[in-house]
Amino acid sequence: MSDERLFRDRDFRMLLLGQTTSQLGAQVSGVAVPLLAVLTLDASPFELGLVTASSTLAFAVIGLPAGAWVDQWRRRPILVASDIARAVLLATIPLTALLGILTITQLVIVSLLSGVARVFFDVGYQSYIPSVLGRNRVLAGNSSLEMVRASGQVVGPGIGGALVAALGAASVILVQSVTFAVSAIALLAIRSTEAVVPRPEVRPRLWPQIREGLGFVARTRVLRATALASATGNFSFAMASAVNMIFLARTLGLSPVVIGMVIAVGSVTAMAGAALTPTLSRRVGSARIIWLSLALTGPLALAVPFAQPGWLVLLVVVGMAAGEFGQIVYAITNVSLRQRFCPERMLGRVTATMRFLIMGLFPLGALTGGILGELIGPRATLVVAGTLVIISPIPVWLTLRGSRDVDALPAWT
């Protein structure tokens, strides 16, 4: 189905509205939260790494059972509840800041609980998309969703930086809270009916369900390879996130407004990558593009830590732009592959297994980045992170190097 026909689908537009709004808010607060920690609470690299790690710890703790639970319930109520929970949690930050009692500890706790809600949302969302679009439209739908959502990545950081300068970082986080509420409302407006989840006479045990999802991934060579590549990339991103704001604000001496602009300019390529993914997939090959998107852009992403005050700050823009482009193309093609071929009855468990394997290392990566930031400095830490990005596509290349298109892949099980 063409993009034009997709956008005429009311349910797709509602899905798009909710995700675009929450993505914009996420990008605004993505600048505000670390700047709040660094500029207002004077966080060290380790403390900033702790805040970052806490936001994804839930993937390692409840990621697998979440998939089994999601497969037993309808997905939309899970998504709505997750959005509402995150809206309420984030709203506590500007409230305590107003009262003068905000601490790093609270940021850690809010990040931790919001991470729990995010686990259910991410697993449920990727499992919900085929119910709204149909399996034959997931690539076009994911591409359109990511393209419009990426527009939030373009304007969000710039708006976030300007709002931080004008209002203060704590107040800006309220924007994210509101956008999660808007997302919940948009999801409630979707009319598509999910298939009724059959209720077994005997309630299935949790571990056998989890084991079935793990077994499917373990038996599927391409899933094992993409899980390893994604986990390496996420570990690298987590390391970098622990020191990025410190590097930009303290090492390069950039103001919040300029930091927001730098990130926004780099994110323009995410929108371009999302728009170009279907075309690249057709011309390069729907299987080949999965590893090639990372292999070509990874070396350019290593430019970031070589930036210096002055015009060499442009290296940050170049590196972030290349990284955003490669990651968005990889994410769309990889997720679409899984949504297309995974059996419907266990899509939630397989998605949760992949998210567990991919995101489980994120907290460790953030803590590692914080510790390395203390020991060797932010710049050297970013070099280590960039090197990991370069090697991340090797497992996928080894698995898919002989295949051009997804349809030509061998049987999955």
TrEMBL record:
It is a multi-pass membrane protein. InterPro entries: MFS, MFS_dom, MFS_trans_sf. The keyword ATP-binding does not apply. This is MFS transporter. The keyword Membrane applies. One of its GO terms (molecular function) is transmembrane transporter activity. One of its GO terms (cellular component) is plasma membrane. Keywords: Cell membrane, Membrane, Transmembrane, Transmembrane helix. Residues 222-413 form the Major facilitator superfamily (MFS) profile domain. Pfam families: MFS_1 (PF07690). It is found in: Cell membrane. The chain crosses the membrane at residues 46-66, 87-113, 162-190, 227-248, 254-277, 289-307, 313-335, 356-376, 382-400. Its main location: membrane. CDD domains: MFS_MefA_like.
